[in-house]
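pipeline stage [seq->struct] | target=SDR family oxidoreductase | organism=Streptomyces prunicolor | residues=256
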Amino acid sequence: MAENTFTGKVVTGGGSGIGAATAHRFAAQGATVVIIGRTQAKLDGVVAEAPTGSTLIARVGDVSDEEGISRLVNTVAHDHGRLDTLVNNAATVEPLGTVSDMDAAGWRRVMSTDVDGVFYASRAALPHLRAVGGSIVNVGSASGLGGDWGLAAYDAAKGAVTNLTNAMALDHGAEGVRVNAVHPSMISTDMTAGFLQSEAIVAAALNRVPMRRFGEPAETAAVITFLASPAASYVNGAHIRVDGGLGASNGNPHLA
């Protein structure tokens, strides 16, 4: 993709893990990028590592705060004169647990970030995206396409993001706004760091992934920027796995 693909465009999204890698990739290709997150120090670190000569701005915000995130998205569009791409990347996997052992507060904590945040940010962004023929890229998960043991809330939340992507693609495609999703699995980020400390989990996971390695945030970022680019101008309602081939399996162990 050309270095100036997003020159003159304004992008907003998350500021850690996949979000940080995505911000750097958009910025390297000429976009003005505004990253949003809860922790100023973490955001400042992402800005400090931005490509030389790029424009990357940090804003503290919480996607689960309806009024706050709506105000922040509108401010980004106002300050920069437009908004071309919204990347809905914020998510939490914790607390882990089944429906039997999770309390309502834990359930709401996951849902408020992983689902409500997508709704709030998208609703605020849509008027600005309509004005320029922009797009939304939702960061789902392989866990939104199939279940995991002990991740009831996260699986439910990411499943909601999957079908919300479909609904928005149908509802807003005629308005000139494309809505797509990427679905990573076992990417090396802070969210997966706890799992990757277990040798047993690592061995079991690598045994299932045909490419025999974990993904890097930059590999998901490359797909996100493609979906937001002119090269994907007729791609709407797409769901792209970034999982090293994990989803190609029917679930059986190695039999041959």
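stage status: PASS
auto-comment: The mean pLDDT is 94. The chain is about 45% helix and 15% strand.
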